Each structure stands twice: as structure tokens, then as C-alpha cells.
Amino acid sequence: MQSITPNLWFDGTAEEAVTRWTNIFEDASIGSIARYDDASAEASGQPTGSAMTVEFELEGQSFVALNGGPQFGFTPAISFIVNCPTADEVDDLWAQLSAGGETLMPLDSYPFSDRYGWTTDEFGLSWQLIHTEDPPPQKIVPSLLFVGQQCGHAEEAVDFYTSVFDDSGVGEIVRYGPEHPPNEEGTVMYADFTLGGQQFAAMDSAEDHDFDFDESVSFIVHCADQDEVDYYWDALTADGGAEGQCAWLTDRYGVSWQIVPRILPELLRDEDSERAGRVMEAMLQMQKIDIEALEEAYAQ
Questions:
Q1: What pLDDT digit, counting tens, does each position of 102-112 carry?
Q2: Spatial CB neighbours of 156, under 8 Å, sequence gap ≥ 6
Q3: pTM of the complete model
């Protein structure tokens, strides 16, 4: 199991999106689906019995789709790079993912790849499709775009994240030169790094963008015990981060995380609906997750 899982926020279309994506990608599957019970439906405003979360996998990358409501919509601040071994695969994915979406960088030849394009899909999620002759083992890579007040902080953020997570490191960093205005020379055009053994990317952009990081894409950190929950919660909220509800937090750069003990999904999926409901009600009162309190609610 991945130690960090991207969580995608939808307004009622999570199942539709997951079905679409798992039909587009060759190596794809749909996992468990959790549905809103009375307590969680009342707290969220979602219909009882509707899909709350859908677990799925695309090309070896695990995701969770969440129907959370209309509060957030996807932006290019977080996109997903798809490393393709052939240009034909780029073209095929582009034809399917760009349908109903918006082109951010046209499908074309660029100095860094003979076939590349950046598009949103019909659900608004951003994809960067690139032909890579020597593709990395991780085909789909989450990419963070630092814009506005966060522009110029990509390298600092990469250093911070790799200091927090084990099995982490910084790979290649490509910097803007003087020929790339309005980007400041030396800031990050592209950087790759690993967190918990998983590959990520980061970029700065000084272009005029009307978006920033928000909760539309967050990253679930799966924790073995309370010590890990406490560690990641404290580390990621430090120096300007903010605590949210139900395991959510925002770090100093505005990126959203969910710090989730592995036992929580197990308790919520218990066959005894009353026990699972008590766990849900307890969790809804929390910011940082308290495992002991959840277990007490389960055992009542």
C-alpha cells in the first residue's frame, strides 16, 4: 500500500469520474466504495446512501475520490504527469483526456520532449502527458505548481517535504534561465523528488494565474499508530500551517494533507453499522485524529 495517496474532491461526480478514468487507462481498477450514512450525510449535506469515497488505481498509482460538495474545484496547482513510453500513447491519452476539457499547453514538440501536452479533462482535473524514452517506474506523478505568493518557494517546499518524510530525496532540478521571463532566474522550472518512496514533481511559475493550492486535491498520509499521526500533524502544521477538521490540515505553502491512521478505514467499514456510525460521529468532532477515542466509540 502506498504511504501517501492523492485524494480528489468532487461535487457528486466521483463515481462517474472514476469510471471514466478506469476506462481510459489500460492498467486500472476500482476498489471499495464507502457510502454516506445518516450521520455523515447530515454533517456533509450529501444524500444518505450516495458515494462518499471511491478507491481506485491507475497505472499502479492509488487514488481516492471523495464526494465532498461544491466548495472546491480542481485547478492546475496540482496536476498529474503521465510518463508515456511512446508518442502514440501520448496522442491516444490526449484524445481521451482532453475531450470536454481545456488545453493549458498544446500537444506539440518541446525542448524537453518530442511529444507533450497539458490539459484539463471533463471533470477539471489537470493532466500532463509526456513522451519519455526512459520512463520511470512510477508512471503517474503528482506535480505541484507554485504560483502567486508561493512562486519561488518550490525548492524550499521540496526541501521541507523531504525532511519530514522517510525514504525521501531530491532528484533532478531544472532552473529557469534569464531567457524565461517573467520567471526569476534560478527558480524551479522542474524538480522531481520522492516522499515515502513515491515520486512527486514541483514547479514555480510567475505567470499570471488565478488559482492556488486548495483542498480540491489533498494527500492522505497513512499512519501506523498515534505516534505517526502526531508526528506528521505537528510537522506539517508547523510554521504557518493550519489545522482543519477530520484529519485535514494545510501546510505552510497551502498544500492540503489528511493524516489518517490505517485503523480508521477499518473501523468505518465494520459490518456492525452502529459501531461504524459511532466511529464516524466521533471522527466528525475531531481535528487531529485520536485513535484511542475512536476505539472507545467503537467499543461502546
A1: 999 999 999 99
A2: none
A3: 0.95
